[in-house]
Amino acid sequence: NAQSASPFGTFQLTEAGAFLMPYERLINATAVASNPLHWPWQRVRAELDKLAALGKDYVGRRLYLLYNPATGRTNGTTQNFFTTMTIRPPRIVDRPHRHTSAVINYYFAGSGRSTVEGKIYEWKAGDLMLSAPGWGIHNHASYDEPVYELTIQDQPLNIAMESLLWQESLQQPLKVLGTQAGFATNL
User: Fold this and answer.
1) Other C-beta atoms lying within 10 Å of the C-beta of residue 72
2) To the nearest whole number, what is the mean pLDDT of the chain?
């Protein structure tokens, strides 16, 4: 009579924390509920507008992640992607930075420019832009009116794979987000 499951279960093999897991557990991963979530624009915008008042001395980006707690440490909207909503007050220029995550920006109010590897790309409301392919040094700037933008990145996927290289300031060393402590952006 063949056994239908390993009698040994999952167990710790070494003091350093290495475990062994049997097949039956491997193919029965713990389910994590990822329920549909809704971020009402008027409520998100009210919170974004508060960030506009931080003034020019604030050097962090003025954005909020549409965060799904089911994604845990990878800071996602879904398990593979995040979505952020950004406001750029008039004439704000972000600090140049770079990362390996791919980025799509949709600008739905205002106009400005992105500089990627020294080349300037101008955009306006209604434009969709792949703005930071493959580790390119880049930054964004608004012109004479507030900019609202939606950004989608594959950052959670890269954090899960331990492959998200990020350099918040070109004067600081790069980090692997999710495996190293991150950055303080408003120093």
Assistant:
1) 13
2) 91
Please tell me the distance from the alpha carbon of residue 141 to that of residue 10, in angstroms, as a whole number: 52
- Residue range 120-134, pLDDT digits in tens: 999 999 999 987 667
Integer-rounded Cα Rg, in Å, for the chain is: 21
* Pairwise pLDDT comparison (31 vs 63), residue with the higher score: 63
pLDDT at 187: 45
CB 157 within 8 A of CB 146: no
Residues 6+ apart with CB under 8 A from 55: none
Write down the residue that tokens 């097949």 correspond to.
Answer: 23
> 145 with 103: CB under 8 angstroms?
no
> Model's pTM, two decimal places?
0.86
3-state secondary structure of 72: helix
DSSP state letters, 109-144? E-EEEEEETTEEEEEETT-EEE---TT--EEEEE-S
- 110 CA to centre of own chain: 22
Helix (H) or strand (E) holding 49: helix 41-52
- Spatial distance between the Cα atoms of 141 and 99, rounded to a whole number of angstroms: 18
**Taking a C-beta distance cutoff of 8 angstroms, is the pair 11, 20 a contact?**
yes
